[in-house]
Amino acid sequence: MRGVLVPLARHRTARFVAASTAAGLVVAAGAVAVAGPWDGGQRKAERVRAAAADRGHSARSAPGRPPAGPVLAAPAAGGRPPAASDVASALEPLLKDAALGSHVSASVVDVTGGGRLFGADEGAAVTPASTIKLVTSAAALAALGGDHRIETTVMLGSEGIVLVGGGDPTLTAHPAPSGERFASLPALADATARALKARGTARTRLSYDVSRYAGSAQHPIGPNDNLAPVSPLMVDEGRLDDSDHGPAERSADPAGDAARKFAELLGERGVRVDGSVEEGRAPASARRLAAVSSAPLAELVERALTNSDNDIAEALARQTALADGQPASFDGAGRAVTARLSRLGLPTDGVRIADGSGLDRSDRVSADLLARLLAHASDARAPELRPVLTGLPVAGFSGTLRGRYQEDDGRGLVRAKTGTLTGVNTLAGTVVAADGRLLAFAFMADGTSDAEGAQRALDRLAVGVASVR
């Protein structure tokens, strides 16, 4: 059974490129030229879902709101990039905003030519917060490709069945709506019950296997509403409420909870689970009985970036580690992600990947790395990295930028990943400049004391890039 990550009735987040006819948002072809099912610069499925979602959004919009600028407007064919002096004139006054605190670094790169148009301490490795998800996502895509899927399997051994976690945090305990297919525990229970009954079995023992990951499951920040314990087996990201993104109370034992839920589902399907459900290992002689698969990795990346999903980001880091033969732990993932950056030819001086989500304050990357990564993801020669761009929130319309740029010229123009920790505010993304040139940027402030003021200052910097001719 192949899984596709789609909104449930409870999943109200629109994927992932906003398009609002009523608001005048135009998505033009050309900024992202890739092979695949693209139409007008975005995936066809995204266009349909986003249009439907934004019909509802536009009905709630305040009357008289000015039209948005074009998202992913077509870059100018040929021509010259903006002059570095013009970019500096636009950005240097904005970098002096007191809300940015004691230290801010910046980098602006011309996507077409690859040259740096502006830099301010751009090589300094600083705490990136959630903009590190760009790094995690690019590494996973480079290691595995966008079509890779993460399986959750049931193995049959001599002493019963084993539920084996593969590392899919989007596996859900909710049933799939009619006509939709994605990785759900009820679907796995359906397939498992059918297979057991076909063997004449109506009762079994059940254990669960989390050996795919190594090291501590607990993030260094400790128990936190922003992240479940990092386990290869969980349902609905270990959330204890009905949310699908953002902070929420999490299970302290997501793997055990998932396995116990699976036992309950089997019972509902006429298969009795004997005894208690305990952690174990699938024996080498075990046979595959049933499986479900996650959405393609490309879609997981898009969701991780749009919603700044920490659980998916940590899973992506561990999938990279597994692909590179490293232990699927915080340390192993850090080594694997760093190695992938080097193979992509990106600057890694001072880089430290302590986690995949950016919640660890000891993470270190530079503005130059982030801007160059985005430029590389825009290169037609690296189509496997394109979800790094398509997953970026759209200013004023989607994801973590939905509530920003509401009264700004950048609404609908800027696509960027946000980053926020106490004292740290970052923004990295792409924008089409006034003359039609696609530019990549990264701004990182790591000494802030006014988070909202810092966000507004970063947003003005992105608009400043867009204004350059």
UniProtKB/TrEMBL annotation:
Leader sequence residues: 1-28
Record field: compositional bias (Low complexity): 70-84
Keywords: Carboxypeptidase, Hydrolase, Protease, Signal
Any one GO molecular-function label of the UniProt entry: carboxypeptidase activity
SUPFAM superfamilies named among the record's database cross-references: beta-lactamase/transpeptidase-like
Keyword flag Glycoprotein: no
InterPro entries per record: Beta-lactam/transpept-like, Peptidase_S13
Region of interest (Disordered), residue spans: 52-85, 236-257
Family in the record: Belongs to the peptidase S13 family.
Protein name, entry field: D-alanyl-D-alanine carboxypeptidase/D-alanyl-D-alanine-endopeptidase
Source organism: Streptomyces luteireticuli
